[in-house]
Amino acid sequence: MADDPIRFGIIGCAKIARKVSRAISLAPNSTLYAIGSRSIENTKKFAIQNGLSETVKIYGSYEEVLEDPCVDAVYMPLPTSLHVRWAVAAAHKKKHLLLEKPTALDVAGLDRILDACEANCVQFMDGTMWLHHPRTAKMKEMLSDSLLFGQLKLIHSTSTFSPTPDFFENNIRVKPDLDALGALGDIGWYCIGAILWAANYQLPNTVTALPALTRSSAGVILACGSSFHWDEEEDGKVATFYCSFLSSVSMDLAVSCSNGSLHLKDFIIPYQENFASFEFTSGAKFAELHLGWTLKQKEVQVACELPQEALMVQEFARLVECIRNSSCCPETKWPEISRKTQLVMDAVKKSMELGFKPVNV
Amino acid sequence: MADDPIRFGIIGCAKIARKVSRAISLAPNSTLYAIGSRSIENTKKFAIQNGLSETVKIYGSYEEVLEDPCVDAVYMPLPTSLHVRWAVAAAHKKKHLLLEKPTALDVAGLDRILDACEANCVQFMDGTMWLHHPRTAKMKEMLSDSLLFGQLKLIHSTSTFSPTPDFFENNIRVKPDLDALGALGDIGWYCIGAILWAANYQLPNTVTALPALTRSSAGVILACGSSFHWDEEEDGKVATFYCSFLSSVSMDLAVSCSNGSLHLKDFIIPYQENFASFEFTSGAKFAELHLGWTLKQKEVQVACELPQEALMVQEFARLVECIRNSSCCPETKWPEISRKTQLVMDAVKKSMELGFKPVNV
After folding, report:
1. What is the mean predicted confidence (pLDDT) over B256-272?
2. Which of A9, A163, B7, B71 has the smallest CB count inside 10 Å?
3. How far apart are CA A340 and CA A361, in angstroms?
4. Where does residue B329 rank: exposed (0-12), middle (13-18), buried (19+ CB within 10 A)?
5. Superfamily (CATH) of domain A130-306+342-360
6. Least confident piece of the model among A196-200, A232-236, A265-269
7. Is it true that the peptide bond before A102 is cis, omega within 30 degrees of 0?
8. What is the Cα–Cα distance from B20 to B31, expressed in whole angstroms?
9. Nearest CB to A256: which of B19, B248, B284?
10. Distance between CA B30 and CA B310 in Å, rounded?
11. Which residue ranges does the record assign to the GFO/IDH/MocA-like oxidoreductase domain (chains A, B) (predicted)?
12. Binning pLDDT at 50, 70 and 90, where does residue A183 land?
């Protein structure tokens, strides 16, 4: 039993489930055991289209996946408005929970999920993949070197893409009853998460949404942004982000410190799977007479043996193994990261509702 | 006379005058004729330290430069609070005017300068060098290609550097009576200018300063930022910028459009003099299953035969030659660019004064 892989059940056949089912098969300590959607035909179709093994159990409901005693952990890519109901149900069935982002419509909803996970001693993690890439660890290691970078001053992040017209008609991410947070929840999540990551998860003091806000006719956010501010005692740090379903693909992250800066343009999904890079400067000055710089940005390349989503699954499964085999407590780092991200997202939304006024976090 | 170079007088021995005196000597159609500061000793010292030719006239006052009938044009790197007085005086003496940025403390001040230039039929240009780099023209050519980039959606710009402690004690740029606009005037000017440049000088509808504002004990702006918003009829474009005297060197410009994006990290002062580069993507999509991107950023390199500041001087001198030799009217493009930049800067300042409320431009 000790070396048995963690058996995953997937609830919902969203497009992202294709990527994560592949990741589950790539992660050495996990296996896809079952998959369920609201219709057994859809589940079968998904299994065939994605070449799932015939041993994977096919269910025609979410309940059946949760009732299956062989399922250790659930990956849940459901529309956000369904998260509280099904995530709480999964926790009550003692299923460890890998929950797609945004975790909930607001922090109150997320707290219901986290309370259920804690009460049932199951691991919680949200589906933010880039946090598991070795590039992310390398960047954090370097940013933490105060001689190299110094004090954190400014973070800027974008997450934009331009979906097909069909997306605006049919995708759950623009349906007010399914994903009311729209672009803020779907891709703003990454920007907020990246800013908090850079700030070592120290919450900003104030959050002020940018007046540039675009909503669909149904009221769903299609494009928005925000600035964050940390008080003087926290070095007066600043951050800005912008997310949009109306622009071409961008995933910029720029971190400026008192002695250096770091840039990458593909922080959420690296350009390619086997390696990723970022650029940085440290100690750059103006050349004599300001005719140039004393040094240019340097590139750092980081190899990646497994895709970041497989590393996410592997880390999640490792924590589940630890709980199962060694009676460890669930790791609190991951739910804490999710909760802070959701908390700041709530503040961005509140600032919008207040006419873009600063909101204390 | 037709091929005689334009004879420049420099008023003030600021550090930037060293760079521009070199540029005047590099530009094929201009020559340094005279230089004046408030003390003849300082002027002599400047001439010796910068290896100026012994033929350059050395004056112990600004007036003498303006009174010299052989001076065609004046380069004026004085503290901002002195601009109106001396720029207007220069125009009245029929001297063409290359004025260091920020052009004035507010648009009312700039209008007095521009009115004097117009009334005296002299060319006006501000000292924004990067606009004259061939890279800038290349980027504009590509951004204007709607198949390549599509509609402009988002612009982000930074201008930061971390001066020596001595700067905060002695530099004119942090003296409330000399350069009250501080970082906003000195380096925010570039960010505002870059955003307007990317937006083809279409003014934003609203300007909203970021609550992250740092002032010195004397009230001078040390770090600030703003967002700009264009209405839906203008494609709902958005821009953000941040400028600071408290962070390491950064000069980021990122332009995101509906079909492509463009990035560079040294837009104000290129890393080196002889060439500069930028990166862009066009038509990038997610790869199958969102496992990566269909294409990476491409680099475009642009050679530069003369440094951008020499190209600025050359362009200014060309316009002056045209007025002198062919009775052309002064080119209105450059004062219009300066005025729009100053107008938006005024709006940022007003938004700060109103507690970071949106200000209509």
Report:
1. 97
2. A163
3. 10
4. exposed
5. Dihydrodipicolinate Reductase; domain 2 (3.30.360.10)
6. A232-236
7. yes
8. 11
9. B248
10. 10
11. 138-262
12. very high
Place of tokens 């952990």: A73
Mean of the per-residue pLDDT values of chain A: 95
B164-188 pLDDT tens trace: 888 887 787 788 888 889 999 999 9
Say yes or no for a CB contact (<8 Å) between A242 and B156. yes
The complex's ipTM works out to 0.94
* Mutant choice from B187, B229, B250, B251 vs A, greatest count of A C-beta within 10 A: B250
Q: Which residue in A154, A157, A191 has the most chain B C-beta atoms within 10 A of its own C-beta, making it the best mutation to test that interface?
A: A154
Q: Which option is the CATH number for B130-307+342-360: 3.40.50.261, 3.40.50.720, 3.30.1330.10, 3.30.360.10?
A: 3.30.360.10
- Chain A neighbors of B260, CB-CB under 8 A: 248
Q: Which residues pair with A124 in a beta bridge?
A: A97
Nearest by CB: B289 against A18, A158, A291: A18
Token pair of A114 as six digits: 């986290």
Residue A129: per-residue pLDDT: 98
Q: Is B296 a catalytic residue?
A: no
Q: What is the mean pLDDT of residues A109-138?
A: 98
pLDDT confidence of residue B2: 53
Closest CB to B211 among A248, A272, A358: A358
Collect all residues of chain A within an 8 Å Cβ-Cβ radius of residue B18.
289
